[in-house]
Amino acid sequence: MTELIPGFLWGASTAPHQIEGNNVNSDWWAHEPNMPGMARSGDAIDSYHRYAEDMRLLADAGLNSYRFGIEWARIEPAEGHVSLAELAHYRRMIDTAVDLGLTPVVTLHHFTNPRWFTEDGGWLEDRAIDRFRSYVETATGILDGVEWVCTINEPNMLALMAMMGQAQQAPSEDEADKWMSPTVEGAARPVLPSPDPKIGRRLAEAHQAAREILKARTDAKSGWTVACQALTPTPGNEEKLREVRYVREDLYLEAARGDDFIGVQSYSSQAVDENGIVPHPLGPDSTLTGNAYRPDAIGIAVRHAWEVTGHVPVLITENGIATDDDTRRIAYTSDALRHLFTAIDDGIDVRGYLHWTALDNYEWGHWEPTFGLIAVNRETFERHPKPSLGWLGDVARSGGKALKEQSA
C-alpha cells in the first residue's frame, strides 16, 4: 500500500479568468472580441460570486484542498492603482477555503495580464519584472496563513501565448488563422511551435523575484507550475528529445531548482522523432482536445521533473481529461493515480494531487472541452456535481485506499 505523506493534498484546481466572469481589465478580455473563432468569456461561470458554493461542494465531497488564482488585472486595474476591495475579495476566498477545511493553494498569475501591462510591451518591456514584483508585494498583504503559493502558471505555455499574441496582432478572416487555444492541441492543426526561450528566461527572472518576495514576507511554500508533456523518444532520437524538451520544458524545470515545490501539470504524452514532436492522429481514443488517452503521462512527467529539478518536492497542480463521459474521467484518473502511486513507491516526494478542474469552464477561447468534476448550467449557473467528484472524494477520504480496493 502506497504511503502518502501526512497532510497529502487532495483537491481540484481552477483559474480565475476561466471561472470568475467579467474580467474586464485583463488583456484576454480585450483580445477576445478581436480574434476570429474565439468565444467570449463573458460571465464565465460566475464563480466570482459563487466561490463559496464551489468550495463547499469540494469540501463536502471529501477533498481537503482547493487551488485558485487571484487576478492581477482586478487588483491593479491601472498601473499603480490598487483596488482594496478586490484584495479584500480574494482574502475572503482564502478565509472561506480555510473555514471549510480546504487548504488554499493560491496562484498569483494564471495566463492573464492587466490590459495596461500588455499594451505597454508585456513581459519583454524593460519594466516588466519591476511591475510584476510590485504586484507580488501587494498580493503578499492578503496571504497570511496561506501555505502554498504558485507564482506563475505554466510559464512555458505563457511564453508561447505571448509569442502567438505578437504574431496575431492583426486579425485575419482567413479560416486557417482562426484562434485555437494553446491548451487545445489536436489533429485540427499542426503541433504548436516551441516557446521563445527569450520570453522563457524573462519569466524565470519574474518567478525568482516573486520567490524572494514570498520568502521575505510570508511563511508560504512557493514554486511555479510547469506544463509537462511527458515526451518520449522514438528509437535513436534521444538527442532530438533533449533538444525539444529543453525549450519546451527543461528551461522552466531548471528554474525551479531551489523552490519549495514544483507544480507538475500533465495530461497526455507525445513521441519525438528526428523531426520533432509527432502529432497524435485523431482516433477513437482521443480526448475532446485531440490528445491521446495517456493516463501514464503523469508518471513520466513526475519522474522527469524530479530528476531535472534536482529532487524538488512535487505537487500535482493539474491532471485530468477533456471528456463528456464521466465514467471515462474516473477510469483515466484511476489509472493516473496508480502511476503516481508507483512513482511515490519509487521514492519521489509527492505532496498532493489537484485535479483539473473543479468545474466545467471557459477553456481559453472555447467552451466545448469539459474537464470538470462539476457541470455548470451557463444560463442559470446551477452547479451539478458529477459522479467523479464523489469518487475522488472517496479516494481522498481513504488516503488512496479506496482506489486500491477498487482495483483489487
Explain what you see:
The chain has 408 residues and is α/β, with parallel strands linked by helices. The protein has helices spanning 16-19, 27-31, 47-61, 72-75, 84-99, 115-119, 128-139, 155-167, 197-217, 238-254, 297-308, 326-345, 387-397, 401-407; strands at 9-13, 65-69, 103-107, 148-153, 221-227, 232-233, 262-265, 271-273, 276-277, 314-318, 350-356, 374-376, 383-385. The strands form 3 sheets. Strands 1-2-3-4-5-7-10-11 form an 8-stranded parallel beta barrel, surrounded by 7 helices. Helix 12 (326-345) packs parallel to helix 13. The model has no long low-confidence stretch (mean pLDDT 94).
What structural keywords apply?
three-stranded mixed beta sheet; alpha/beta; 14 helices; globular
Terminal Cα span: 12 Å
Q: How would you state the average pLDDT, rounded? A: 94
Q: Structural class of the helices, strands and pairings?
A: alpha/beta
Please trace the helix and strand order, writing H or E for each element: EHHHEHHEHHEHHEEHEEEHEHEEEHH
Separate helix tally: 14
Write out the strand line-up for the largest beta sheet, numbering strands in chain order: 1-2-3-4-5-7-10-11
Rg = 20 Å
* Contiguous runs where pLDDT drops below 50 for at least 5 residues: none
What level of helicity do the residues show?
A: 25-40%
Annotation, overall tally of beta strands: 13
Main beta-sheet annotation? 8 strands, parallel, barrel
Outline type? globular
Strand content: 5-15%
